[in-house]
């Protein structure tokens, strides 16, 4: 075998080895590209999921704000009902203590227009001016000899259950026993003195 043939075979072997290396490098490049593409796809999927979650959160916030804005409208509907008007407290027994009172209100859309509420009337309050009205009275005035009465005024101190009470009231009571001069006693004394004078003259 000549030197030329040996060189030719050696060159052919080197070329074959280079081809194998090139093929392996191409395969590695393809695998790397595939791995990069898979990672890119995974990143895109994660981004898509995050974007959808962000949109969902925004939608939930919008619905919550819309619900808050709608609540005042419901309050406006409730305001269609009129204010409660309460009757006088009626004791269960006697003229004071625990009792009940009736409440009514107007409104076509009101679900409840009547209700009963428990109440209490203090037993130490003067009932002649209303069982739900408390007054603070001044001292008694001087006795009026013409009427034989003395009076005093009272100012409203407290009203239970928004009762309609007078701002000022006046009460009177008898003055009691009056010391008046007795005309009969004076005439008897005069008669006795007259008789004494007559005896002296006799």
From TrEMBL:
<feature type="domain" description="Pleiotrophin/Midkine N-terminal">
    <location>
        <begin position="68"/>
        <end position="129"/>
    </location>
</feature>
<dbReference type="Pfam" id="PF05196">
    <property type="entry name" value="PTN_MK_N"/>
</dbReference>
<keyword id="KW-0812">Transmembrane</keyword>
<keyword id="KW-0964">Secreted</keyword>
<dbReference type="InterPro" id="IPR020092">
    <property type="entry name" value="PTN_MK_heparin-bd_GF_CS"/>
</dbReference>
<keyword id="KW-0339">Growth factor</keyword>
<comment type="similarity">
    <text>Belongs to the pleiotrophin family.</text>
</comment>
<protein>
    <recommendedName>
        <fullName>Pleiotrophin</fullName>
    </recommendedName>
</protein>
<dbReference type="Pfam" id="PF01091">
    <property type="entry name" value="PTN_MK_C"/>
</dbReference>
<keyword id="KW-0358">Heparin-binding</keyword>
<dbReference type="InterPro" id="IPR038130">
    <property type="entry name" value="PTN/MK_C_dom_sf"/>
</dbReference>
<dbReference type="InterPro" id="IPR000762">
    <property type="entry name" value="Midkine_heparin-bd_GF"/>
</dbReference>
<dbReference type="InterPro" id="IPR020091">
    <property type="entry name" value="PTN/MK_diS_sf"/>
</dbReference>
<dbReference type="InterPro" id="IPR020090">
    <property type="entry name" value="PTN/MK_C_dom"/>
</dbReference>
<feature type="region of interest" description="Disordered">
    <location>
        <begin position="173"/>
        <end position="202"/>
    </location>
</feature>
<feature type="domain" description="Pleiotrophin/Midkine C-terminal">
    <location>
        <begin position="130"/>
        <end position="192"/>
    </location>
</feature>
<feature type="transmembrane region" description="Helical">
    <location>
        <begin position="47"/>
        <end position="67"/>
    </location>
</feature>
<dbReference type="InterPro" id="IPR020089">
    <property type="entry name" value="PTN/MK_N_dom"/>
</dbReference>
<comment type="function">
    <text>Secreted growth factor that mediates its signal through cell-surface proteoglycan and non-proteoglycan receptors. Regulates many processes like cell proliferation, cell survival, cell growth, cell differentiation and cell migration.</text>
</comment>
<keyword id="KW-1133">Transmembrane helix</keyword>
<keyword id="KW-0472">Membrane</keyword>
<dbReference type="InterPro" id="IPR037122">
    <property type="entry name" value="PTN/MK_N_dom_sf"/>
</dbReference>
<keyword id="KW-0497">Mitogen</keyword>
<keyword id="KW-0732">Signal</keyword>
<keyword id="KW-1015">Disulfide bond</keyword>
